[in-house]
């Protein structure tokens, strides 16, 4: 007697590893139907690469940025980066629609929960990376505080004064008169 795991492994082997003719024979279908079965299974198993780039903004309520999401070569702009009560997530792009209940209509829908979670995870990571990059840039161009500037100027002036020759004494200059 085969266990459910063994049955699933055998099904998987037939769908992905066995020759098409054997798949058709085992399933009792034509070669064309077996090819369609394998193609559907491969497409279902395929993971589409998702990359996200984020542009942080000065927070406007819960809105903290905008993002572009690349789904394996298709780029969708204007996702909203929102800091909600359960953390940061990406909201789908929308446009004004006076006929809707909220006044806006989503222009992109992601019905698959797993895909939405992958987008959110990539968006959170991209947001934190973008903010870290902005902080690093700001620290690089930010001038030093006034106290540090004054201390550095005093140190530099001390070095310059030490390098100058001592001035001539004033009394000696008067005796020549």
Compact overview of the structure:
The chain is α+β, with helices and mostly antiparallel strands. It contains 6 helices and 6 strands; from the N terminus they run H-H-H-E-E-E-E-E-E-H-H-H. It folds into 2 domains: 4-45, no CATH class; 50-140, Stage V sporulation protein G (Arylsulfatase, C-terminal domain), CATH 3.30.1120.
Structure description:
The chain is 50% helix and 24% strand. It has 177 residues and is an alpha+beta fold. The chain folds into 2 domains: 4-45, no CATH class; 50-140, 2-Layer Sandwich (Arylsulfatase, C-terminal domain), CATH 3.30.1120. A 4-stranded antiparallel beta sheet has the order 1-2-3-4, with helices on one face. Strands 5-6 form a two-stranded antiparallel sheet. Helix 2 packs across helix 3 (31-45).
What does the secondary structure layout of this molecule look like, with pairings?
Elements: H1 4-16, H2 20-27, H3 31-45, E1 50-60, E2 63-71, E3 74-84, E4 87-91, E5 94-96, E6 104-106, H4 113-141, H5 146-163, H6 170-175
Antiparallel strand pairs: 1-2, 2-3, 3-4, 5-6
Helix pairs in contact: 2-3
Question: Largest beta sheet: what is the strand line-up?
Answer: 1-2-3-4
The CATH class assignment of the largest domain is Alpha Beta
User: Helical stretch count?
Assistant: 6
How many strand segments? 6
Looking at the overall shape, the CATH architecture of the largest domain is 2-Layer Sandwich
Low-pLDDT stretches? none
Shape: elongated
Distance between the termini: 126 Å
Q: Average the pLDDT over all residues and give the rounded result.
A: 87
- Whole-number count of domains: 2
What is the radius of gyration computed over CA atoms, rounded to a whole number of angstroms?
34 Å
CATH topology of the largest domain: Arylsulfatase, C-terminal domain
Q: Output the structural class.
A: alpha+beta
GO biological process, one term: sporulation resulting in formation of a cellular spore
Protein name: Septation protein SpoVG
Organism: Blautia luti
Region (Disordered): 149-177
């Amino acid at each position: 007697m085969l266990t459910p795991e063994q049955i699933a492994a055998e099904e998987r082997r037939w769908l992905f590893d066995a020759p098409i003719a054997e798949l058709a024979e085992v399933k009792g279908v034509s070669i064309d139907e077996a090819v369609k079965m394998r193609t559907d299974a491969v497409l279902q198993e395929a993971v589409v690469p998702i990359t996200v780039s984020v542009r942080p903004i000065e927070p406007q309520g819960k809105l903290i940025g905008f993002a572009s999401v690349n789904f394996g070569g298709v780029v969708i702009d204007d996702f909203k980066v929102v800091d909600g009560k359960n953390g940061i997530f990406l909201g789908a792009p929308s446009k004004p629609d006076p006929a809707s209940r909220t006044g806006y209509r989503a222009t992109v829908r992601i019905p698959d929960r797993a895909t939405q979670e992958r987008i959110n995870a990539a968006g959170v990571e991209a947001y934190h990376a973008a903010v870290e990059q902005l902080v690093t840039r700001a620290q690089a161009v930010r001038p030093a505080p006034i106290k540090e500037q004054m201390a550095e100027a005093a140190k530099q002036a001390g070095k310059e004064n030490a390098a100058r020759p001592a001035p001539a004494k004033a009394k000696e200059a008067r005796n020549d008169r």
